[in-house]
Amino acid sequence: MSTSTSAIVLESVIKEYPLGQIRVPALQSVSLQIEPGEFTVIAGPSGSGKTTLLNLVGCIDVATSGTVRVAGKVTSALKERDLTELRLHTIGFIFQSFNLVPVLNIFDNVEFPLLLQKTLTKPERKERVLHYVERVGLSKHLLHRPNELSGGQRQRVAIARALVTRPQIVLADEPTANLDSATGQSIIDLMKSINENEKTTFLFSTHDHNIIQQARRVIELRDGKIVSG
Ligand SMILES: Nc1ncnc2c1ncn2[C@@H]1O[C@H](COP(=O)(O)OP(=O)(O)OP(=O)(O)O)[C@@H](O)[C@H]1O
Ligand SMILES: [Mg+2]
User: Fold this and answer.
1) Is the domain covering 1-89+169-177+185-229 a CATH 3.40.50.300 domain?
2) For ligand 1, is residue 50 a contact (CB within 6 Å)?
3) pLDDT at 143
4) How many CB atoms lie within 10 A of CB 31?
5) Distances from the Cα of 50 to the Cαs of 31, 47, 122, in angstroms?
């Protein structure tokens, strides 16, 4: 398939982190192609490069060399303004540590990306926020703040916030790492149903063998290289 219609394409991507006098190789010539609507897990031991890879795709960091293409756009060729646009309109990012705003209630946390987007009116934003908060099963908690919720509930807020802009691509770095296995499974079920219903592309990392077994595609990293997938 042509790479210009792919959701995500990496071509010979190298990422090195400077550490004093040395350079730590985090990704060593990684190439991969993910089509729209795929549900893909990135697996691999600690330090294998999972977070590094997601950060490059999420335009949070830049590759040392090689090409990263997201929704048909070569990210290194984009100006800051276009990168912001891509992060805000095309990608939803779910972090391991949730990254919710502690002083805002659940409604306001989920609405936040829509305020940045500046495309919807207030009533449209409200409808959209309520839809996704309902989708993640938290309608009764709209006025709660993050510290008044459990870990699983916070992760569901983070998912609603990542989805509220209807991104084509959702990236998640170990979205179930801080959750017990039943709650983790419910988060995966939610991601799967959104993938099936809305054709959203999902790319997420995990250590959890149970979850790895359920993924349609598994990309396995070891020492910064793809060993399968
Ligand atoms: N900011 C940094 N500076 C220097 N080295 C880094 C930095 N971030 C990551 N690394 C190194 O890059 C490699 C890949 O790290 P990365 O965080 O991508 O791994 P990971 O697969 O996400 O691991 P984990 O499962 O523990 O989250 C590791 O060797 C790590 O030590
Ligand atoms: Mg990591």
Assistant:
1) yes
2) yes
3) 96
4) 12
5) 14, 8, 37
Dist CA 149 CA 225 (whole Å): 38
Whose C-alpha lies nearest to ligand 1, atom 4?
A: 17
Among 16, 21, 52, 203, residue to substitute to test ligand 1 (most atoms within 8 Å of Cβ): 52
CA diameter of the chain: 54
The predicted model scores a pTM of 0.92
For 166, phi and psi rounded to 5 degrees?
55, 55
Tell me which of 13, 15, 16, 17 to substitute to probe ligand 1's pocket, judged by most ligand atoms within 8 Å of the beta carbon. 17
Q: Are 225 and 53 in contact (CB under 8 A)?
A: no
The answer to whether the CB of 48 is under 6 A from ligand 1 is: yes
- Compute the distance between CA of residue 70 and CA of residue 169 in angstroms, rounded to an integer: 9
pLDDT (tens digit per residue) in 47-58: 999 999 999 999
Q: Give the start-to-end residue ranges of the domains of the chain.
A: 1-89+169-177+185-229, 91-166
